[in-house]
Amino acid sequence: MAASLVTAGRPCPICTKPAVPEHAPFCSVRCADIDLHRWLSGTYVIPAEPVDDDEDALISPDGADDESDR
Ligand SMILES: [Zn+2]
Question: Ligand 1: distance of its center to the CA of 22 in Å?
Fold first, then answer.
């Protein structure tokens, strides 16, 4: 029985599965992609703009004139 633990001691930071040298330090390209997205979302911080009170007017658009016609 040969030890199949290729990169022992280096679990995937995403899913904690044993990582593979091909996608180190991740276990798969998918996990690497997930980490990349996390990285990007953390790097490119989108400034949350304060919500204006104008949005209140968009909540109840009384444009149901069509229904009253039927
Ligand atoms: Zn993984």
Answer: 12
